[in-house]
Design goal:
coenzyme F420 binding, about 130 residues, Pnp Oxidase, Chain A, seven-stranded antiparallel β-sheet, alpha+beta, Split_barrel_FMN-bd, oxidoreductase, globular
Length: about 130
Amino acid sequence: MTDLDRLAAEKYVLLTTFRKDGRAVPTPVWAVRDGDALAVWTASDTGKVKRIRRNGRVTVAPCDVRGRPHGAAVPGRATVCDLVGTRRVRGLLKQKYRLLGRLGLLGSRLRRGESGTVGLRIVLEDRVGRASPG
């Protein structure tokens, strides 16, 4: 089983982004496989989106709802999805998380509007630092 398969099967993953000074900022998030990458969804105005726009370096690890990791972290590169990509991520999340996903996405859309959230696409790196083919 690849890192991508293992992480995509988790209910939550710990997405760690990095501040300018290098300090790690971990956040538990829902995750889903998006082709050869892992995709997550978040509010557009979060710190992680700002940090990813500045520097896409991240790590991803399996975790529980409270962010306690229970597996090894895998390095990757994250990018912020455009509107079409964000819609695709929302659809994938609805499929994986079923009713809970639909309710979460609906509540967020009612609070923030459609542009209030974005998808993040994470290409994992293999053990020698190259982008993994998936």
